[in-house]
Amino acid sequence: MSASETHNQKNINKSIEETFPILQEVAKESLVAGKSVRGYVSTVFGCPYEGNVSIENIIRVSETLFEMG
Fold it and tell me: How many domains does the chain have?
């Protein structure tokens, strides 16, 4: 998961918004199975395509992942 839209597109060929439901399903199934879930956010210190990434994007992506468990 990237905080940068362009990096997320080039990395997994999906927008940030398209990625959330997929990760939500994986997290849900993992938690139901008694597994722990860990997420990582790329490009929080800058993006090779966009340069600086806004703190608002970083917070939004991070908070959405935290809400998934």
Answer: 1
